[in-house]
Every structure is written in C-alpha cells, then in structure tokens.
C-alpha cells in the first residue's frame, strides 16, 4: 500500500468515526428518553445507513492499523453498499428541508461525503483483480439481511425506518415490489462494479 492509498484510507476512517460520533450526539439530543448509550445505539442501528457506514468505518480502521487490504470482493461490496446509501437518500429520502447543526453534519458525512470518498478510493487505490459476476449476487446478502431485520423491527414495534418498508401503509405486496426493485438495482450496480474492476485490471490501472 503506497502513501497516497494509506492517507486516503485514514481520511475515510476519520470521516466515519466523526460521522458516528456526531450522529450519536445528535440522537442523544433529539431523544431525551434515550438516557443511556445503549438506548441511543438502538435508535441509531435501526437504519441501513448506520449499519453500512459503521461497517465501512471498521474496515478502514482495520486497513489503517494493519496496513493490509481486504479482498477485492469485500472492497467492491463496500463500494456498492455505500453508493446505495447515498443514492437512496438523495433520490428518495431527502426532503429538501434545510438541516442545521449536528443534523446537517451527520447527514452530510453519512449520505454525501462517504458515498463519494469510498468509490473514488476504490477506483484509484483498491485491488480489483479476481472480481467475478457471482460476487454481484453475493453482495445482495447484506442488504437482504437488513430488509429482514427492518421488517421484523416494523412488525414488533410499528416503526419502519424507511417509507418503502412500511407494510401498514403499502401492504406486503407494495413492500415486496420495492424490495424486488432494490435487489435488481443492487445486482445491476454490483455487475457494473465487477465490470469496471475487470476493465481497470486489464488496463493495468489497479494494483
């Protein structure tokens, strides 16, 4: 790993650590009932955004501390998942209402900064050789597990993290349709990442 790649990894790790800290403080301020850290964490980890960004933060902290890359398949998966976080937020969830203070910082770091930095790092610094189309299918496991978790959460608590998972309003058929759309989009996105990685490998632009 060269110095540029290492510094880029450190930057992403710092962004994720800062985002988690800001989000934690923001949720603590906005939910006075959550008086203990575990209560705040429970509120945070209802969202795919938090799960995915936390995973990315842990991975990049590992890379920085151990100075070792993960496999191309793992790194490609992280790119796909963080792109979904950014795209879904900006295309489906962002209301356009102005955000202030910690709200602005947490939303910006999680939904805009990380979804830009990670793919750029992947393009220029990450190993990509060995990516196969089967990886695009394997990369569906993480979001599929979250969908199951979120639906169980909704059934048990009547809280739905995202409108497209609200079975009370959309019905199971409506939610199933959204899930199918997302899984198709994820597979296509994964296939595109595999293709880009293989092309860059052929052009000797990846390490």
Automatic annotation (TrEMBL):
It comes from the Bacteria. InterPro entries: Pr6Pr-like (IPR049713). The keyword Nucleotidyltransferase does not apply. The chain crosses the membrane at residues 43-65, 72-92, 104-124, 136-155, 175-197. The keyword Membrane applies. Keywords: Membrane, Transmembrane, Transmembrane helix. This is Membrane protein. It comes from Thioclava dalianensis.
